């Protein structure tokens, strides 16, 4: 059984995190979820899901304040972590190892254990500070993957755009997503 940590922070685009969880489940991956309080706000604004519906998409869900949870330790083995969406606040905390909640702690653990960390950073336009935080996170080993649509695939719906981005994020962890449209296929 492969294991993926999923963090949902308070940037717009919670649909990306939801889709990552759904696709990971389809692929037979065990998921461990932590949602920040701001992530819960965007859930309420942007979806019809209750907190328990979101939690039910993962195998295990943790409270963000629970910094003693399994995913806070490097000895708990995982295949990596995706933060989808990733706010600038969470990006900055990850970039500078400010392990101020379970999401940012789990991300830092992922980096220190030299595992894959994919950050779907969502903000626009970007300040130099945002760009510097992206540079610092990249220098520490994270993959910064802003959820930017690929129009060459001629997406017909928002769902298709979200599917493609979530699938590409899972690709970066070597998780097979069946039917992901690919250029050249
Ligand atoms: C509806 C909504 C949309 C937001 N969109 C963004 C966004 O796209 N990017 C971002 O960095 N912050 C966004 N924010 C602000 C973050 O939620 C805020 O900075 C929060 O402190 C992030 O905390 P977290 O990183 O612990 O989730 C948004 C907030 C709300 C309520």
In short:
The protein has 185 residues and is an alpha/beta fold. It has helices at residues 14-26, 37-46, 51-56, 88-95, 102-112, 128-139, 158-171, and strands spanning 3-8, 30-35, 60-62, 81-86, 117-121, 143-144. Helix 1 (14-26) crosses helix 7 and helix 4 crosses helix 6 (128-139).
Structure description:
By secondary structure, the chain is α/β, with parallel strands linked by helices. It has a single domain (3-171), classed as 3-Layer(aba) Sandwich (Rossmann fold). The chain has helices at residues 14-26, 37-46, 51-56, 88-95, 102-112, 128-139, 158-171, and strands at residues 3-8, 30-35, 60-62, 81-86, 117-121, 143-144. A 6-stranded parallel β-sheet has the order 3-2-1-4-5-6, with helices on both faces. The two termini are 29 Å apart. Bound molecules: flavin mononucleotide. Flavin mononucleotide binds next to helix 2 and helix 4.
Q: Oligomeric state of the chains?
A: single chain
Q: What's the main sheet like?
A: 6 strands, parallel
Q: What is the global morphology? A: globular
- State the end-to-end CA separation: 29 Å
Number of strand segments: 6
What's the mean pLDDT score? 96
CATH topology: Rossmann fold
Percent range for β-strand residues: 15-25%
Structural class: alpha/beta
Which molecules other than protein and nucleic acid are bound? flavin mononucleotide
Strand-and-helix sequence, N→C?
EHEHHEEHHEHEH
